[in-house]
Design brief:
single chain, alpha/beta, TIM Barrel, 2 domains, 8-stranded parallel beta barrel, 10 helices, elongated, binds phosphoenolpyruvate, binds manganese (II) ion
Length: 339
Amino acid sequence: MIIVLKDGTTKEQIILFKAALEEKYSVTVNTWHGVGSTVLGLIGDTTAIDEDWINAQEIVDNVKRVQEPYKKANRKFHPDNTVIELPTGQKIGDGSLCIMAGPCSVESEEQINFIAERVKTAGASFLRGGAFKPRTSPYSFQGLKSEGLDLLKGARKATGLPIVTEIMSTAHIDMFEGVDIIQVGARNMQNFELLKQLGKTNKPILLKRGLSSTIEEWIMSAEYIMAGGNDNVILCERGIRTFETATRNTLDLSAVPIVKKLTHLPVIVDPSHATGKESLVQQMSLAAVASGADGLMIEVHNDPRHALSDGAQSLTPDQFDILAQKAFALKKAYDEING
Ligand code: PEP
Ligand code: MN
């Protein structure tokens, strides 16, 4: 971290400020005296330094971070890829392509069991499905809640597919005990209380990127979960808000290689919520594989036209069969090309 002091700062002020920094943050402070201004260079672990506090000091002109503000998620301190392994053997981040598929919302026993069977046959290794739905309108279908969780567990029993489902409140954590991967949706990416509580569990957490979040903010949310002691975080790029209206969101695929370089966590892509359009999901899934993603999350519905949520972006099981075949074939080619 570099701190530029204001012109006219006295020697005594510099000595006092350096001492305060060294004591408060246990860092070493180097000093360069320029023609007019003085520059301080802070060496050591600067993750906990409060930039606002530094900026608020009367003698400080400006401050710049040269190190990332996250430590646990940082590849610099953990060069090997994190591989999430479930007790049932499924792995995410081990170099294979992991596909999570299922309906936007769990709607009925017949619906979830039928879709689970079909996505499993096509090669998916996880069943997704929302029981608690974050809907823009309070009048839209809000999910089957605990009944939805029970239906997911039933589909897991029938197919053996582990389940991924979204949590919306800290009050529900106990209810999610039997869930294999807990999803934090885009709208809750910065629900810090929820992230802290999930950090105390040992469940894998699928953390979606917030609608308007920068990559650094997204990684900082992963850091919240990891700082609590839970290192099992999977990141999911699901598109961000831009000026473009032709798609529901804008799929930021460059985030995949960037985040994989900055962190050691697995990164998957959700082209369903990113595009909002069934006709774009296959191509964007293949593009996600080519971007180096560790997996895909795809919405699949037995009858998209009558889906209770997100029908326009849901694939039929037949369409999903083709997507999965192509995605696995492309992944094979990708691995050959990249050695
Ligand atoms: C979902 O996966 O069902 C969902 C609501 O996604 P997002 O949080 O990315 O909008
Ligand atoms: Mn959805």
